[in-house]
Amino acid sequence: MAIRVLTRPTVHNLKSIVAFQTPKPQSLSTVTQIPVSPRNSPQSPYRKQISLFNLFQRHGFPPSQLHGFLKKNQFFQNYNPHELEKSLGILFSFQIPQKFIISLISDYPRLLEFEFLKKWEMGIAKLGVSGVSPLMIRNVLEFSRRFELDPVDVSRCVKILKGLGLRDGTVGGVLEEFPRVIVMNEGEIQRKIQFFLGIGIPENSIDGIFHSLPGILGFGVEDRLKPLLSEFLKLGFTEKVVRREISREPRMLGMELGELSRCLEFLGTLKCRVPIKENIFSKGELRAGFEVKLRVDCLCCYGLIRREAFEVLWKEPRVIIYEIKDIEEKIEFLVHTMRYNVGCLIEVPEYLGVNFDKQIVPRWNVIEYLRSKGGLGCKVGLKGLIKPSRLRFYNLYVKPYPECEKMFGRFSSDVEVGNRHPVGLWKLMKPQKHPESEEDVKNMKFFVQSL
Question: N or C: which end of the chain has fewer CB within 10 A?
Fold first, then answer.
């Protein structure tokens, strides 16, 4: 049987063991680094995206749109986060509504470059324009970023416009609607003014023209303004009439060549009642043609083509004498509340000719109430809503349902209809009674017997 003997290690043996177990020092270049997950790295794209998401969300960006915005504009990951936050601070220092800033950045994300916005740190108020609008700031910044302009360029433009006699409100309107004026020289603007003075426009009316139509600064004198003036004269209007109408309605100069001729030709084909036609031409033939142009543009803004717009006006000429804001109110109600396509106006143009508060809204309220209660046997379209007379609509949809009378209003028992004539007027209209004498009685008897 073998016996195992345990012995103590000597000091020499301990040193050899320690030397064997202790690793030798290595250089830093030979040390193998532990791989770090990109998700946990502070410089990873994931971390940057989270940081950008939080930064934009703190400044009011809706989270539902941020994912798509950052995915579309991945160059933000190359921006310095501190400079990006300063850029947002500069934009918000202009004291414009948050929704305008969000819309501006969404449309022009490159606007957040710090080197560009740093030049505008002094603020818009020091440009020399009082009462600036958010839209003006948006357009000026976008145009300046596109063409690498400085606030000095904008200040120079403001001084030129004021030096030509334009008021602060007009200067702000020009920068808002036509920011390209910043890169125009004084000679180009002066030529427009000389053209107006040359056709007899008073100098004090120049400011009103630029205020009403800022984009006229972009029109050429030789290729746009002079041919337009020649067209007015060829149509038979005198220089005095043209000058008077331009002073009253400067937007007339924004018409395209041949547009007035087309509108006047259209007016010649109208078939309507004499009072309506007299109302259309009450301010002159030139103004009537321009009013047609405005209504056509209004209808085209909502999706109709020009041929369809002219067709609607031809079928319902009363639209020409209504205000633009009333037409827009009716179309907005038609599209957003009634959920009809704007193309329905081609089939039912009478919708634009009836009263909005007295006919359209009450009838729609009645139909909606009956639809919600299941009281309609069939679908009522726009034609069935507008075309029936008030009495017929009342008998069809209101009279059988007493609760609808208050919505409809006109024939309701709760609504008192005032008398058209004063009380007791019938006594004054009663024929006068003459006394009958005996001779009159004999004459009547003799006349009857002769028959």
Answer: N
